[in-house]
Amino acid sequence: MRAPVPPCAVCTRPSRGFGWFDPTRKVQPRPSAAFCGLDCQAFWTRLAARAAPAMVDLTEQERAAIRAAMRRIAEAMDDIGWATRLQDLTEPQVLTLIEVAVGGFQDAMQAIARGQPVEELPF
Questions:
Q1: Domain boundaries in the chain?
Q2: How far apart are the first and last CA of the chain?
């Protein structure tokens, strides 16, 4: 049985053979990360070079990706109806909102990793 494919450390899509591990650590397991492509790997490497080891706050890129995903979420809410309360959503509607939010975030993170601008809402 094949081991599950780990998610990309940048956009969380399935990784495709690109990776990193800490060659200086003597104790196993060594810290490692997997990536879906060279763009995400290079982006993560640039961020990791500047990041503090215990950083838990969102990066500016993650904040921009969240803002970019808002447009897709708003389009899905237009279909559902803005007056619908969260507790009144059906399971398919909740799944659609989650898929739209996660997909929009991943697409924006990949665009940022490629150096492309992401479209944000104008507020």
A1: 1-54, 60-113
A2: 49
